[in-house]
C-alpha cells in the first residue's frame, strides 16, 4: 500500500475503534503507531512515539491547563457563580424576561474565570433554574437558557479549548484568548435577543404562570458591590494581567488559581476533604487532556508522513469546492460529530487533518480556531450526546424534568449559535481585530 492509502486506512480505523467504544486517546495512539510502522518500520514508530512524548508535553504552556482548571473548580465551590447571578438578577429584574438575560450575562462573566462550559452548566442549573421557575418561567426555557449560555465557557477566555487549539495549531495562547472576546460578546447579545424575541412571540414557551417569588430581597449598593467584588477582582487579576502584558498565560493561570484559593478560604468553602477532592479532579482532568494531546500529536505526525493532508488540500483547493466550500464541509462535520463525541475529541481528530488544508487555503488561523471552537460548542446542546444537557439533568436531579424537555429548551439557542457562527464567517474582524492589535 502507498503511504496515502495507509493514512486513509488509519483514519477509517480510528473512526471504527471509536464506534466500538475504545477511548479516543488509546485509539489514536494505536492507529498512529500502526500507521508509522507500515509507512516506515517499528523502530521509527517507537522513536517517533518517544519524541512526541518528550516534545509535546515539555512545553511550558501545558502548565496553563491544571492552573486554569484548578481556578475554575475553586471558583465553583466558592459560590461566586451565585453572587454573579444575584447581581445581574437585580440589575435586569425589570427587563422583559430579565432573569433569562441575567443568566446569560452571569454565565458570560463566570466563563471569564472558569474556561470550562460544564462548570457553568453545573453552577447555574442549581442557581438560576430554581430562581427562574419561582418567578414563573417554564423549566424547559430555564434549563435551555442555562445550557445555551454555558457554551460561553469554552469561548470567552480563559478557555480550555482555546489552549488545545493553540497547541495543535502552534498559535499564541494569548492571541487565541483575545480572539474569543468579540465572539463571546456577540453570542451573549444574540442569546439575549433570542430570549426577548421568545418572550414576545412564544410566551407559552417562556412563562409557565404567575410569579410566585414575592417581593425580591432588597440589596443595597454595598451588597451588590460585595457580591461583585470577588469575580471582578479575579477578572482584573487574570485578564488584566494577561492583556496588560504583565503576565504570560502560565503566570496568569497561577495568579488566578491563587486568587480563587484566597476567595475560597475567606469564604470558608474549602474544608480539607473538599480541597483534596479538587486536587484529585484537577489532576484527572489535566492528565486526560495532556494524554489526548500527546495522542493527537502522534496522529498528526503520522498523517503528515502519509501525505493525506497534502492530498486533501489539493482536492479541496484545486477543484470546484474551493476554500470556503472546504470550510463549510469542515464546520458541518464538526457539528455532526458533536452529536456523538465530546468537544476536545472532535478537535483532536479533525484538526490534524484540517489545519494543513486551512493553511494552504490562506485562512487566518486564529479566525479558523474561533470558528472551530464555536462549531464544537454546538455539540454541547444537540442530541444524543449533548453534554451540557446531561450535566444539567444530573445536577438538578428533578424527576419531573426529562432530558427531552431540556433538549427542546436548547433548540432556539442552537440556532442562535449557528447565527453567531455565520456572522463570524462573514465578518472575520469580530474574532481577529483584538488578536491582531
TrEMBL record:
Record field: transmembrane: 6-39, 60-81, 101-129, 141-165, 177-199, 228-246, 252-270, 282-304, 324-353, 365-390, 410-435
Example GO molecular function: transmembrane transporter activity
Any one annotated GO CC term: plasma membrane
Species this chain originates from: Algicella marina
Signal sequence, renumbered to the chain: none
Described function: Part of the tripartite ATP-independent periplasmic (TRAP) transport system.
Protein name per Swiss-Prot or TrEMBL: TRAP transporter large permease protein
Domain TRAP C4-dicarboxylate transport system permease DctM subunit, first and last residues per copy: 12-429
InterPro entries xref list: DctM, TRAP_DctM
